[in-house]
Specification:
With 177 residues, this protein is of the alpha/beta class. The protein contains five helices and five strands. Helix 2 links the parallel strand 1 and strand 2.
Length: 177
Amino acid sequence: MCDHHPTDFSRRGFAGLAALGAGLSLLPARALAQTPKAAGPRFLGVMCIDYRFTMIAQAVFNSQAGIGGYDLVALAGASLAANSPWAFPNETPGFLEQLAVARSLHQDIANVLVLDHMQCGAYKVVFGNMTAEQERAKHNEVARAVGPLLGAKGLKARFYLAEADATVPTVPIWQSS
């Protein structure tokens, strides 16, 4: 019968494992010391509060700004929040306040990505029942109105419109030049 068990742990084995652990614990500190400080977000992502589009918003914002390259704000109607004092009087100041906070925390923010979506409840509240074509036209109209307002604040903007089937949009419906 064999007295040696492969699961036995000798003093020599323990010392080797301890040395390995100590060496590995130093690696992250050295790696972090040599890694340049990451730049902060350069984008602010604005999406609607509709839960059906959170993954779509992430896909759009990640594709444009990179993972971790944006701060995120969710407000009913997305682009509508930036310019709708007649329907949601507190939402426009709230949007502007969130924008100011994001820019004060991350001075590199110079771009705004906005994701609107079809069959938006906020648009229905403001504009009533619409056909798909009418709603698409309203999204374009609001984007054309909000874009220059953001431009006046020194920001470039891109507006995307997701279809009701949650297809990820790849072409903006409006963007600043």
